[in-house]
Amino acid sequence: RLEGCSRHASVHAAGVVISPTPLHELVPVYKSAKDEITTQYAMSDLEKTGMLKMDFLALTTLTIISDCLNTIERETGERLDMSKIPLEDAGALKVFVDGRTEGVFQFESSGMREICRKLKPEGIDDLAALNALYRPGPIDSGMVDDFIDRRHGRKKVTFDFPALEDILGPTLGIVVFQEQVMALFQRLAGYSLGEADIVRRIMGKKKRDELDKHKKRFLDEGEARGNNRAKLEKLWQMLEGFADYAFNKSHSVAYALLAYQTAYLKAHYPTHFWAAVLSNELDNTDKVARYIGEARSAGIRVLPPDVNISTDLFTPRGNTIRFGLAAIKGLGQSAVGAIVDARNATGPFRSIHDFCERVDSRAVNRRILECLIKSGAFDSLGARRRQLFDVIDAAIESGARAQRDRATGQVGLFAVMDGSSHAAEVRLPDVDEWTQRELLTGEKETLGFYITGHPLAHHKEALAEFASAYVDALGSATAGETVRVGGLIADLAVRNTKKGDRFALFQLEDASGSVKVVCWPETFGKSARWIANEAAVLVCGRLERTDDGATSIIADEVVLLENLREREARSIVICAPTSALTVDRVRKLHEILDRSRGECDVEFALELPDRTVARVKPNDFVRVAVTPELTQRLHDLCPEASVRINVSRRLMTLAPQASAAPWQR
Question: pLDDT by residue (tens digit) across 147-176?
Fold first, then answer.
């Protein structure tokens, strides 16, 4: 009795039904719990009544383009008309050719970037084809590789039916779009345009049983028109496979045009483009961090938020992007609005006390002030963050008192005389600034990432020597590949297996992104003492990728980055010109090495006057412990000398895949 009954009423997210008369006169209607008026007929039944059903997709990309155009006009006075931009612009196409499509509509995934680099698109047609082909069906069947090989002449483009050359020529002999199928049925089997459209709809809805009904007619009619039946059979088999991933060209070209427009803005107005992208991803910390890294790699400076400059969103100015106040964690829209209103009303803020006197105290509390200070939004006022943090309570109290006085008409003598507040002159406590680590931790807490620096910058030499990739390069790595990635541990969770053994899950973060790491009991047992949140580590392990493309690392080893080069050292080579080694320096050098006894061999590479190098190894008893202090003392003694550390083969040097460290980008 239950079989075939309606289980529940649901609403299509973007579906709109259009009729020539009031809807209730033609079909039964229903009002949802949210007061949405919908039809009671299901989608397929509704179409049979003759109703026009449209899907109106809301795309963030359209907002990004609009925001970008508005900021361009506001800063430069230029009103760009996207309908008139050239469709073969070299700069825009280079974005696709180089695979630098982060932030570009429909082309952001690592797989799509790789295909773009292989194909090297030359125009909208290529982008439309990639849009249609980049799906599991064509990828798994090898169609994408076949398309690329034909484009570059590695495979010959052939046509079983010469009459189809004008139809399949633009896609190199491969059926890519539903519209091509319509043309095939018309050209080979005499279908009318309406009948061919029915075939297109059947393929689009993946109705294989209905498609089979057309097979006999297609073969018979095609043969009657003088076409080889065996070739028609071959073509039909290909069309049956195509039905699983049929894509219509009108949709694909529309998306390709949007992708091209975003790439054009990215190529020619990068600051405005990235500001618009960041503003539309305010609530997605991971994407904001990744996009800021991409903006920096393009030479754009991303500046911290500033109470005297920032608006609610990311703001482009010259070759910089100013962080938006609304992107600071803990700041609601009411607080941001109150800050901007007060600044617009009476000018820039002069101090934290002046800020508290002028910004509506109902919108700004202690927690919000803490977030503003930690994020660096008050840095332009000239005070240290710790100084400001220590006077929050006093500033709030004096600000509330001043606002109460204004409300009751009690204004101080000096304010009456010069019309201003003297809050800016309040003395701040003379205290040292927070440590660099504390400053960066505050930024990570309030912004979701580090903006004025990065803790990993302290370990840049170790990462350059031992890491094989940064996080953003893992998307193009091969599953099963052994990788070495350095980063900070975050979101650590220690759990027990069914046997009771402990293992760990955490996110490994560098400035380019984060990746999930799994430490099974054996690895966790060896490394547990330094696996902790915020620890800077090097993870060595096997790359894994799920069916949906998510990447993770199964760790074989986790080691601390702190003094990694020194801990893994097996020998050091002191390189110096002989002219720099005076008798006094040699004596002091002997004393330094003697006070640094350890297990590492010492060798000298001496540059002789004739530019040749002599390698000299002292007696075996000269063995040292390699420490940062030792290398610093050697440098202080002889600035002309350099020290090279040879490490164990267990952590052999691998050149990083990225061109520059994420914190430098």
Answer: 999 999 999 998 889 888 999 999 999 999
In this prediction, residue 518 carries a pLDDT of 96
Q: Which amino acid is located at 217 in the chain?
A: R
Phi, psi of 344 (to 5 degrees): -70, -30
Cβ(641)–Cβ(576) under 8 Å?
A: yes
Largest CA distance in the chain: 106
The 3-state secondary structure of 224-240 reads HCCCCHHHHHHHHHHHH
Identify the burial level of 408 via C-beta atoms within 10 angstroms of its C-beta, where 0-12 means exposed, 13-18 middle and 19 or more buried: exposed
Residue closest to 289 by CA, chosen among 61, 511, 552: 511
Q: Which residues contact 128 (CB under 8 A, 6 or more apart)?
A: 249, 252, 253, 255, 256
| DSSP assignment string, 320-389 | EEEPPGGGSTT--HHHHHHHHHHHHHH-S--SHHHHHHHS-TTT--HHHHHHHHHHTTTGGGT--HHHHH
CA distances from 7 to 2, 3, 10, 297, 514 (A): 9, 10, 10, 52, 41
Q: Could you tell me where the beta strands, DSSP code E, fall in 249-305?
A: 301-303
Look at the block and give the residue holding tokens 């990694």: 564
pTM (two decimals): 0.76
- pLDDT at residue 414 above 60? no
Instruction: State the pLDDT at residue 470.
Output: 85
The DSSP 8-state label assigned to residue 7 in this structure reads -
Residue type, 286: D
Helical spans, DSSP H, in 34-101 = 43-48, 60-76, 90-97
Neighbours of 325 (CB within 10 A): 25
| DSSP H helices in 412-554 | 413-418, 436-447, 460-466, 521-527
From the number of C-beta atoms within 10 Å of its C-beta (0-12, 13-18, 19+), residue 107 rates as buried
In this prediction, residue 270 carries a pLDDT of: 96
Q: Determine the Cα–Cα distance for residues 282 and 472; give it in Å rounded to an integer.
A: 20
Cβ contact 549:561 at 8 Å: no
HSE-up (13 A, CA, CB side) for residue 400: 12
